[in-house]
Amino acid sequence: MKNISEMPFCEAMMYVRKKNKDCSSRSKLAARTHIESWSIASFERGESLPTRKQLAAICKELNSPQLREVGEKEIEYARTHPDVKICYADNTTCWKCHKPMKTVYGLIDGCSIPPDAFSDGMIKVCADKGVILEERRSGTTGETHLVNVCEHCGAFLGEFYLHDLWYGETETIQVEDVSDFIPDKEEIDEDSKS
């Protein structure tokens, strides 16, 4: 038997599952854990990690405390090392004056965030790139948000329209200081219970 503590979680999970005759296929493990088989496939391909609740169910069915240790270690690493990026475009067409404007949105582990959720460091990077971010009142929500503003006419691009920017970036900037985006362990544990 291989030492799974030296394997990445995805490989260790597949190895342990295949050695377990009651859960040798993804569909069998899915049926026993009540986790979708596509999720199990995603875990085994290394595309995502299970929640702590899912990990507990998987390791219980596979009878593997060692797999749980490997999974816990990777889940904790992912929590404390989120992948944060600024997606910058210097050629977004302003909806009002039709001139090019500089715009940004963010990504945390592949999920988009608006400038409203940016850290101070991210806002500084955007200012250095010439992006104008200002607090503006939304006609849709009635709330004030940090938004992309056109340097030519002053019109702003609200959060609702950020999806129009996806994949139109001309540069992706990796954010090094991710401390503002690390969730509390207690928050993660509470999410796993629900």
Account of the 3D structure:
With 194 residues, this protein is an alpha+beta fold. It has two domains: 78 residues, 434 Repressor (Amino-terminal Domain); 93 residues, no CATH class. The chain is 37% helix and 21% strand. The strands form two sheets. A four-stranded antiparallel beta sheet has the order 3-2-1-7, with no helix packed on it. A three-stranded antiparallel beta sheet has the order 4-5-6. The longest helix is centred in the middle third of the chain and has 16 residues. The model has no long low-confidence stretch (mean pLDDT 90).
Number of helices: 7
Low-pLDDT segments, ≥5 res: none
Structural class: alpha+beta
Q: In what range is the share of β-strand residues?
A: 15-25%
Q: Determine the N-to-C terminus distance.
A: 35 Å
Number of domains: 2
Q: Give the CA-based shape.
A: elongated
| Main sheet strand line-up | 3-2-1-7
- SSE string, helices as H and strands as E: HHHHHEEEHEEEEH
The percent of residues in helical segments reads 25-40%
Q: Averaged pLDDT, please?
A: 90
Give the arrangement of secondary structure elements.
Elements: H1 9-19, H2 26-33, H3 37-44, H4 52-62, H5 65-80, E1 84-93, E2 100-108, E3 111-113, H6 120-128, E4 132-137, E5 144-149, E6 156-157, E7 171-174, H7 185-193
Antiparallel strand pairs: 1-2, 1-7, 2-3, 4-5, 5-6
Helix pairs in contact: 1-5, 2-3, 4-5
